[in-house]
Amino acid sequence: MATPTLDAFQVIADPGRRQMLMLLSKHSLTINSLAENFDMSRPAVSKHIKILYGAGFISIQDIGRERHCTLKQDGFNALHEWLKYFDQFWTSKLKNLENLLNNKLPN
Amino acid sequence: MATSIKHQLFFPHPPRAVWEYLTNAELMELWLMKSDFQPVKGHEFTFRINPVPSLDFDGIVYCKVLEILPFEKLSYSWKLGPGDGTINVDSVVRWELQPKNKGTELLLDHGDFAILENIGIFNAMNVGWLENMHKIAKQLNAADHGNTNA
């Protein structure tokens, strides 16, 4: 079954995935131990894991027969990107305005 | 994690002078962008800025004047998307002018970010989640050369 590719915003719109990220923010977990916290089927948990992985929120490492999930930075960066982008945008525009107003207009 | 972008600037000019630069399309073009802005509530206009492919943004900002109170307050919606007619980001830009010491304190608040069918990045999260995000972001930023963006 194909896993849909979601952007960071769609990824965190799901309460289950938010809960998973919160659990993983404390420490790395195997998929099995992560699944124990949820009242959903194992395939459903796997699907969410795949989505989190696809969006760059977590990394997965195979250790022995277990799959370990660890929180990753990329996905969170995506969330910050918009705010960061427009913050820089306004900083630069307001600088223009400041130059314009303070140079051109008499006090 | 901040939920809106805030800036504050002081100008040694009366609010009336600063207001002109926020609401006159010709003057706006000098510092902000070319636009078909009109200082009329409900007026729809667009700004064109550089596309940002990494954010799936085609460079067109769709705006609508939400509130206008001459020399005091101005707000407009600020929406954008990838260019296929859909909107990814819905937000609001608010300007406020306060007379102060023979000049003007100009406040900008770009917030109310909502993403995709009003599933807000922020309003979809409860406070607990926001706190956690904040902790996570702190940890990540500390790990990443301690470089934080104000």
Record keyword descriptors for this entry:
A: alpha+beta, Arc Repressor Mutant, subunit A, three-stranded antiparallel β-sheet, 3 strands, B: alpha+beta, Alpha-D-Glucose-1,6-Bisphosphate, Chain A, domain 4, 3 helices, 6 strands, 22% helix, disordered C terminus
CATH topology grouping of the largest domain in chain B: Alpha-D-Glucose-1,6-Bisphosphate, Chain A, domain 4
Average per-residue pLDDT of chain A, rounded, comes to 82
Tell me what portion of residues of chain B adopts beta-strand conformation.
35-45%
Number of helical segments with 4 or more residues of chain A = 5
- CATH class identity of the largest domain in chain B: Alpha Beta
Terminal-residue CA separation of chain B: 10 Å
Order of secondary-structure elements of chain B: EHHEEEEEH
**Quaternary arrangement of the chains shown?**
heterodimer
The CATH superfamily of the domain at 8-80 in chain A is Winged helix-like DNA-binding domain superfamily/Winged helix DNA-binding domain
Main sheet record of chain A: 3 strands, antiparallel
